[in-house]
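How a chain folds remains the central question behind the approach discussed here. In the encoding step, the backbone of a single protein was reduced to a row of integers, each denoting a local shape. We regard such an encoding as a compact summary of how the chain folds. The sequence in question and its structure tokens are set out directly beneath this paragraph:

___
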Amino acid sequence: VQLQASGGGLVQAGGSLRLSCAASGRSVSTYAMGWFRQAPGKEREFVAARTWSGGSTYYADSVKGRFTISRDNAKNTMYLQMNTLKPDDTAVYYCAASRASTYLRQVNRYDYWGQGTLVTVSS
């Protein structure tokens, strides 16, 4: 599975961006999918995840109510809609795919990773 994240860019605080993660190589319809981010000098942290069926979604407290994860299995693509962005959201955002269905907040639960897309929020 190859994952390609896109949609990052520079946005002012309060603005919105939508990230996409396109999968290739095989269908990810039976994989859980997640977004993580890593700011300079910090560890990679969990942002959001969604099970393959879409029955369960998870968010970091810092983004709950502002970010929405979704997926289109027919297009083999996952999205992260980010609203009301804050300077603290500035980071490289990574998408990932997991064969697991539990503990999806943990980095080590993911089997495949995209290359990351940079989001910069100016104040």
